[in-house]
Design a protein that fits this description.
With 352 residues, the chain is of the alpha/beta class. The protein folds into two domains: 5-49, no CATH class; 54-289, TIM Barrel. It has helices at residues 95-98, 114-123, 140-152, 167-173, 189-196, 202-213, 233-246, 272-284, and strands spanning 5-6, 10-12, 18-20, 28-29, 40-43, 46-49, 54-55, 57-62, 76-81, 110-111, 128-131, 156-161, 179-183, 218-225, 253-257, 290-293, 303-304, 311-316, 319-323. The strands form five sheets. The protein has an eight-stranded mixed β-sheet. A three-stranded antiparallel β-sheet has the order 1-6-5, with no helix packed on it. The chain has a three-stranded antiparallel β-sheet with strand order 2-3-4, with no helix packed on it. It starts with a strand and ends in a 29-residue tail after the last strand.
């Protein structure tokens, strides 16, 4: 395994100072300094990745766990995570890997080359590879190399991301990244400052827009609804309107229940009525597919025809119970075309 991997995107400045160009923080690093993400170091005026190929977590997941409901539904997906993040969310469920600085090494990580990653996916019958669990943007060199090989092998590729990526990095991924599952965590700047520790969320919205409209990636949006922080009607309405106007009315929006954790352990889980209100606002504002998450068994986990209301895909949590979609991904009742990429996977272990 390589000790360090030279970064692809950085700018050399004077006196061995360098600016990272992977995420919108654009950290300016002096010799020996490490970026906010904890994974990129300046060595002799050049920036290196400390986590190339270093895997903290690996699993075969149903694609619905990302969550992606309109992208190869029911298919098994090989999921990889590493270490570090360019956010510092105060309720992060994966804080043990995402909040970790790695300058002292990663004793509990395992090196997996891009070639091995693709082989693992193929040997285990995965339909594709996703980079998830921590923020894949900061794993840029590795995910890019892996995605190129995955596409050559006939696998789909997925980013499960906070969307805090520069347009330069996103452009490098164009052509080899199929799906961009992005968190639009809130609306007001103050929310993003308190929860994510960034001053301006504009780059997140910009990357989602660019991924969909310039690079034709499949985009689905998640908003985790935190009581007293982003559960007001104004936030729901602004997000729904932005998604409709910028990603299109057929873009799936997943409104998910918050689970108390870390600095927000004092809060209660999101009331179901709040989630249902958010979904109603999304539908009222023109979105065709608004889902509720972390509420197994709720009818809003299912996919319905936006034209006639027929039940098309019935789910329980991450699992598909049954589907009545036509082979062309149309409603069998009225013929409405449904915004789904790929055919439904009938893998027995992923269906009830």
């Amino acid at each position: 395994m390589p000790e360090l991997k030279k970064a692809r995107l950085y700018e050399r400045l004077e006196n061995r100072v360098a600016r990272c160009l992977v995420c919108p923080r654009r950290c300016v690093l002096k010799e020996g300094q490490i970026g906010v993400c904890g994974t990129r170091m300046n060595r002799e005026g050049e920036i290196y990745s400390l986590i190339y190929g270093m895997v903290s977590s690996v699993a075969i997941d149903p694609i619905e766990k990302k969550p992606l409901f309109h992208f190869y539904p029911g298919s098994p997906c090989l999921s990889f995570g590493s270490f570090g993040c360019n956010f510092r969310c105060i309720h992060c469920q994966n804080w043990s890997i995402s909040h970790r600085m790695v300058e002292r090494g990663i004793p509990d990580g395992r090196y997996v080359s891009p070639e091995e990653a693709v082989n693992i996916a193929l040997e285990n019958g995965a339909r594709g590879i996703s980079w998830t669990y921590n923020e894949p943007t900061i794993w840029h060199e590795y995910t890019l190399d892996s995605a190129k090989l995955a596409k050559k092998a006939g696998l789909y590729t997925v980013y499960v991301t906070n969307g805090y990526i520069t347009l330069e990095a996103l452009e490098e991924l164009s052509g080899c990244l199929d799906a961009f599952r992005v968190d639009l965590k809130g609306w007001d700047r103050e929310f993003w400052r308190k929860i994510c520790k960034i001053d301006d969320p504009a780059p997140v919205f910009q990357s989602a827009y660019t991924a969909k409209n310039k690079w034709q990636m499949h985009v689905e949006v998640v908003t985790n609804v935190i009581p007293t922080f982003n559960d007001d009607e104004k936030t729901f309405r602004n997000l729904a309107t932005w998604i409709r106007d910028n990603l299109g009315p057929e873009c799936p929006w997943h409104i998910t229940r918050f689970v108390p954790y870390l600095d927000l352990s004092y809060l209660s889980p999101t009331p179901l009525s709040t989630l249902e209100r958010g979904r109603a606002i999304g539908l009222e504002n023109g979105l065709k597919y608004v889902y509720l998450g972390n509420v197994p068994g709720h009818p809003a986990e299912n996919t319905y025809c936006p034209n006639c209301g027929s039940l098309l895909i019935e789910r329980y949590g991450f699992w598909i119970k049954k589907s009545s979609l036509s082979p062309e991904n149309s409603c069998p009742n009225c013929g409405q075309k449904i915004n789904i990429v790929g055919s439904i996977e009938t893998h027995k272990s992923l269906f009830f």
